[in-house]
């Protein structure tokens, strides 16, 4: 796995590089700003990019903008975005451009090495990884007059784990239920959110985006 890291905090940037290299992963370049990150993407054609949300010069959304641009330049590039805080608007913006091979994690998760590496590998394999704290805050902020109020508590649990990027088997293991029960809950979620099967949309991703966007509108 070839990785580019974009992080303006030198200590975290080098710490990430050391951690990943210790796991026998190939960190081909690091960058301290969005411009340097995009140059590294063009030069090295990595498999995965790890990108800070807030980068110079304004420390607002340069990382998100650069991540979207990097995916435009290199379709299929996996991107794991790191943020110091829960910022639902940025998570929504990132996922709105497609969910395959995308992750949004809090920086504090890096210290939980197994969780961080699991999210990184999931994203590299084309999956989605959304930080559990982001999911939890979104669920708390949603008002009861939305479609999501139709979901049972267990269906909300399943949707939260779907948002983290877990598959049916992993959800079943986390909730101590059968795969069949998870499949039934997901089918109910799709029905209650009025998500009909189509050839153009992934209903799992649409369900997650449904409450990401709803929470974002209410901020």
From TrEMBL:
Keywords, comma-separated and alphabetical: DNA-binding, Phosphoprotein, Transcription, Transcription regulation
SMART domains associated with the record: HTH_LUXR, REC
GO terms, biological process: phosphorelay signal transduction system; regulation of DNA-templated transcription
Sites of 4-aspartylphosphate modification: 52
InterPro entries cross-referenced by the UniProt entry: CheY-like_superfamily (IPR011006), NreC/VraR/RcsB-like_REC (IPR058245), Sig_transdc_resp-reg_C-effctor (IPR016032), Sig_transdc_resp-reg_receiver (IPR001789), Tscrpt_reg_LuxR_C (IPR000792), WalR-like (IPR039420)
Membrane-spanning residues: none
Residue ranges occupied by any HTH luxR-type domain in the UniProt entry: 144-211
SUPFAM superfamilies linked: C-terminal effector domain of the bipartite response regulators (SSF46894), CheY-like (SSF52172)
Domain of life: Bacteria
One Pfam match: Response_reg
PROSITE patterns listed in its UniProt record: HTH_LUXR_2, RESPONSE_REGULATORY
Residue intervals of the Response regulatory domain: 2-122
Gene Ontology terms, MF aspect: DNA binding
Keyword Phosphoprotein set for record: yes
Name of this protein: Two component transcriptional regulator, LuxR family
Organism: Streptosporangium subroseum
């Amino acid at each position: 796995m070839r990785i580019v890291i974009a992080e303006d905090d030198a200590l975290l940037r080098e710490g990430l590089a050391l951690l990943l290299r210790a796991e026998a992963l190939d960190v081909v370049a690091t960058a301290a700003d969005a411009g340097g990150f995009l140059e590294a993407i063009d030069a090295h054609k990595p498999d995965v990019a790890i990108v800070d949300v807030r980068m110079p010069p304004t420390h607002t959304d340069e990382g998100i903008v650069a991540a979207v641009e990097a995916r435009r330049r290199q379709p299929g590039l996996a991107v794991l975005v790191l943020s110091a805080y829960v910022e639902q608007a940025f998570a929504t913006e990132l996922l709105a451009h497609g969910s395959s091979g995308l992750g949004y994690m809090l920086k504090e998760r890096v210290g939980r090495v197994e969780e961080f590496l699991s999210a990184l590998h999931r994203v590299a394999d084309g999956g989605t990884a959304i930080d559990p704290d982001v999911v939890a805050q979104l669920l708390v902020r949603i008002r009861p007059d939305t479609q999501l109020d139709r979901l049972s508590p267990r269906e909300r649990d399943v949707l939260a784990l779907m948002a983290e990027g877990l598959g049916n088997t992993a959800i079943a293991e986390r909730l101590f239920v059968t795969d069949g029960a998870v499949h039934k809950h997901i089918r109910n979620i799709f029905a209650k959110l009025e998500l009909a099967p189509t050839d153009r949309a992934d209903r799992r991703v649409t369900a997650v985006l449904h409450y990401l966007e709803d929470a974002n509108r209410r901020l």
